[in-house]
Design a protein that fits this description.
Order of helices and strands of chain A: HHHEEHHHHHHH
Strand order of the largest sheet of chain A: 1-2
Structural class of chain A: mainly alpha
Oligomer: homodimer
Number of helices of chain A: 10
CATH architecture of the largest domain in chain A: Up-down Bundle
Distance between the termini of chain A: 32 Å
DNA sequence: ACAGGGTAATATGTATACAATTACTATTAT
DNA sequence: ATAATAGTAATTGTATACATATTACCCTGT
């Protein structure tokens, strides 16, 4: 798990830029990715690029095979299921903690994202909805009061999401998750840790099943 | 989380060697650690050393600050508590899965480590006991059937253990964990997921409290 | 036309040279 | 004697050159 330091090295910004570039423009395409290409694009030598790539590989986002270029890591359906199960456990636990830790104000803020999400879906803007969905879940993680936990869970979300990018967006065209954000927020408002945990876990497990159905085709 | 690949680069072996060296000979001492020193020791240039160090930093084992050398990452008592809580959740969940997934033979194997652990403690060989304790918990993790989970949990164990090394061994001189391996094994034998999870969580929470008591002094 | 081999092109792995930043030390002024 | 400062040493960050390994393609022989 990579936790960017405040007083970090100069390569921190490069890490962000390269990561964003790869996630925004390279993922899903057939473009071949090489160190040299990234180096020239960002006007640095291969050395710092390699360091960034090592980080991304460590996070589980990419794979490098000697002389074969860089590829986004591919997960089998079984591995996807594994990742979802871990997410479910960690985010569920975070929600449980949040029910006791979060301030009323931060729960209200979370509810704001919930409403924006619903609005985006109503508008049919699935891309915006997916973005807000991410923010909702990350904000929720931050409410748990355990930064080690939230950093780790965020990283898993990032990898999980990027790996399933196409399918992820596609899933929005299907059924609506019956265990929705409103239920999670309600459990938090009621200060009901058990229910908050259960709702998040059901929420994620539903996504898992939906994704797996798509992947199995 | 770093998961060494089979068909990996040549730096994989170097990673293992450097890590073992640092954990065995450098941790706990005041020796200054520099890239150059590691490079000359392992007869390679700084380049592959830096890659290894990036991995170790990413895992949370070390910290690097420009021109100040490499230091083992230090955790505040609050952060230690956070890590233990995450461990408790992940390993508890793994135990729950293991109660359903593990074969009778593998549970017997686990019981073997339990007995060896008890014997080592009876002999007063705390170092050996700590080693077997580690193996017990790692084997348990492997029984859950979710390699993503077990790899992640193992990494946390490694970091957790190394960071507390002195205190860790020291804790063996104190009270004995009342939620012991035997109870965990029994729950697995009874195929009782709930109890297996609960026992592991209590086991780890007890360690957390014991460590924190020591750290607070 | 096709199989096979060998060579060139390509890409990563590693070493070395250099730049930049921090730490240390000695010297000088007050 | 102490504090400020400049200059030097030490250490990491980056660029470049070279080594190694893989791929691609052409060329040749049947």
């Amino acid at each position: 798990m990579y936790v960017p330091k405040k007083e970090s090295n100069g390569s921190k910004e490069l890490y962000d830029k390269v990561k964003e570039y790869m996630l925004r423009e390279l993922i899903g395409t057939d473009n071949k990715i090489t160190e040299e290409m990234l180096a020239t694009r960002f006007q640095v030598s291969r050395t710092p690029i390699r360091e960034v790539l090592k980080h991304l590989e460590h996070e589980g986002l990419i794979e490098t095979r000697r002389n074969k270029g860089i590829t986004f890591r591919s997960f089998s359906p079984e591995e996807v299921a594994e990742v979802y199960d871990v997410r479910s456990v960690l985010e569920g636990y975070a929600a449980r903690l949040a029910a006791g830790e979060a301030s009323d104000e931060s729960i209200d803020e979370l509810a704001g994202y919930m409403e924006r999400y619903t609005a985006a879906r109503a508008d049919g803007d699935t891309q915006q909805a997916a973005l807000i969905d991410s923010v909702f879940h990350e904000k929720l993680l931050e409410l748990c009061g355990n930064t080690y936990l939230s950093d780790m869970a965020k990283n898993i979300r990032m990898v999980n999401k990027s790996l399933l990018l196409k399918d992820y967006y596609f899933s929005f065209h299907g059924d609506v998750n019956p265990y929705n954000h409103a239920m999670i927020v309600e459990a938090l408002r009621n200060r009901d840790p058990q229910k908050a945990q259960r709702m998040v876990q059901k929420h994620i497990n539903w996504s898992k099943k939906t994704i797996l159905k798509i992947l199995k085709d």
